[in-house]
Amino acid sequence: MKIKMILPALTEALSPHCRPIKYSLFPPLGLATIASFFSPDDEIDLQDEHVETLNLDDRPDLVVIQVYITSAYRAYELADHYRQKGAYIVLGGLHVTALPEEAQQYADTLFLGPGEDTWPRFLADFRAGYPQKRYISQERDLLSAPPIRRDLIKRQLYLVPNSIVVSRGCPHHCDFCYKDAFFQGGKSFYTQSVDQALAEIERLPGRYLFFLDDHLFGNGQFARELFTGMLGMNRIWQAAGTIQAILQPNLLELAVESGLRSLFIGFETLNANNLRQQHKYHNLNRDYTAAIRRLQDLGVMINGSFVFGMDEDDESVFETTVEWAISQGIETATFHILTPYPGTALYERMVQEGRILTQNWDLYDTRHVVFQPAKMSAETLERGYWQAYKDFYRWSAIWQGAATKTTLNHRLRHLVYAGSWKKFEPFWDWVIRTHQLAKMMPLLESVLQGFISSPLKPLSLRPQGSNRRNIALRAR
Q: What SMART domains does this protein map onto (predicted)?
């Protein structure tokens, strides 16, 4: 059987404001995971439109398309194209799960929610000639999932081909997050076994890797066993976590000793009322500054996430947030306009209040205003969002942030990391056009590791080689 798997380009990746490096970071692990359920005899072509031109002249038997909200129209276009060729069309992903009636018009079969339990059933039905119209995930378990088909990933096209996911979902329930809609009807947070995760890490070449989990620290016991198992692997890695997890005693230290060098953190807002309204309770009454100092003392860089447009935000929120982030020495920041995704509690509330301005999914990219803000105009919100990026990444702000660091090594690392991420667009464009992206990995590793001087004392457990898994098991 010939299978075509496609990750369509997000609309923002095709816009004049596109930063090509942003869309060349990570390979499509979701599709590579699904591919692992097919037979070794099946012929699979996996294409990511962000990094390559799609081959639309082929004639596959089965077409699998992963759909995000701002790739929905492109996904439907591709589905129609292959349907006219007689292919069987399967759609899945966040947008399909949120709006199945819309997606059903373009597909023969829909997958709602994660697919570890539903793909084996579909393939058996499909080969027998009786596939269902919809497969809805309910049994959530990664313990029997086969390894990702990394042989299908074109590593040379990505800056971070060593990306990895060892869990699904998140234990928290924020109103603006898609998670509850996607994982409806079953567990919304679950992990691999520690042994599975360590085996997957060992498959990845080189030193560097990036955990794409929504919340790697979400299960404290799993995280501790994983980090213990990674001791002695000589890895350096990045991930996402929460303020709550950072402030847990000893967990962060173990993560750093196992190789953590940079952490994505959802600060989202400095306003406690905003946190309450969005049900982001795990950030309430947490000392942001203490968490930041804890990370910086351990040599961990920070990518802070901030959302503008919550109901307590007025025109002052942009300057206040940017100045705070700079004064805290945060290396990189990601700003977003609050976006009510279909299927979320935020979207339902906005619909009930009559505040949704458009349902053009191309605009739901966190860079356009699609709802009526409470304390400012839509134009002010959008203008302030763009100004926040300009203000945070101006050279004087980068120097000011670097000056907050207490060692020369960390100041240099701040300058190099923040500056190279935002100030050298022509360089990154040239690297991508000339297919040199994979060669940048040593540079990234040296920035993450080369300027660091870890203050940690050695832990009592220093496993080497095969002893790692035994120690991880004993830690349970």
A: Elp3
**Residue 408's domain spans which residues?**
159-450
pTM of the model: 0.91
How far apart CA 474 and CA 315 sit, in angstroms, is: 54
Whole-angstrom distance, CA of residue 444 vs CA of residue 448: 6
Q: How many residues can be counted in the chain?
A: 476
CA atoms of 442 and 465, how far apart (whole Å):
24
Answer yes or no: do 304 and 270 share one domain: yes
* List of residues 6+ apart from 73 with CB closer than 8 A: 11, 361, 362
B/e letters for 53-83, b = 16+ CB within 10 Å, e = fewer, are ebeeeeebebbbbbbbbbbbebbbebbeebe
3-state secondary structure of 160: coil
Structure tokens at 12: 């923002």
Please list the residues that pair with 91 across neighbouring strands: 65, 110
Which CATH number goes with the domain that contains 304? 3.20.20.70
